[in-house]
Input
Amino acid sequence: MATIRDVSKLAGVSVATVSRVINKKGYVSKETEEAILNAMKMLNYTPNDVARRLAGKKSNTIGLIIPNILNPFFPEIARAAEDTANKLGFNLILCNADNNREKENQYYEMLINKQVDGIIIASYTAKPEDLISLMERNIPIVALDREYDGFDIPSIKADDIVGGKLAAEHLIECGCKKIAHITGPMYIESFQERLEGFEKVLKENNIYNSQFVKIDDISLKGGYEATKKLLQEKKEIDGIFAGNDILAIGCYKALNDLGYELYKDVKLIGYDGLESNINYLEISSVAQPMYSLGKYAVELLVKKIKNEEDIRKEKVKLDLEIIKRKSTIGKQNIV
Output
């Protein structure tokens, strides 16, 4: 299926120029216009989404693209987004991109062809130009769980630098002095920021050790393998901050298999606050406001869809809180 980018490439012009011709807005030379129209004809490209918008019609449907449906963090956000969309009179289409940029781009085109009124995008792989291109096509968008600093792309996320600080401070308050960090790939903005906050606090307390930082896949296996390797190398670890709750569960299993007693030997804190996966294991966690993330993302997008507000410069960051459980404070103090 041809896209506006295919048209721009064939015609030898920018996507913005193609958009001006389609929308009949702004100056484009006659020669350039003919080249674009010929390219559209050759590619059998029909901008139905633009025609609908020019007619002032709405589908009352929005899209939500998430990177991994297997990560419980995203279904909880999707539930909040769907609840909020329904309350505001919109339907929601959920798309799982599997951390695949090509699949993600296919979803953009599918959603546009289904004439959605806007798209919420939670992506580890989308580049700023991808989202800007959508906005140039008059598609309202909101980035979720990623900020795109330096670009006029509206976004909503938790303050992950603060979250990393909170985790480190809590472990220090619990008496830990040799603290490790098990985290996911650094191309993911949230993991970068959590590490940044964590490092800052430990350096301020003169207890940071770069050898205690392990990076692995965002999975139970990743958390397990990284923890096992770390403990086999550094027997003196007394605290672990896991970059998310999935990694934390892997850490928990590794500690158990290696004969460490949680809380007594090693204190452990995760990140996200997934009660369904963490509560019964009694693992402390830096809790993200997942429902609020989904809710506010939809509300922000709908403001743009209804032309109630210019949201291009909106960079919303939500607060976090620590859920304290046995893994850091012991049974006697559980709250």
Residues 128 and 180 are 33 Å apart (CA to CA).
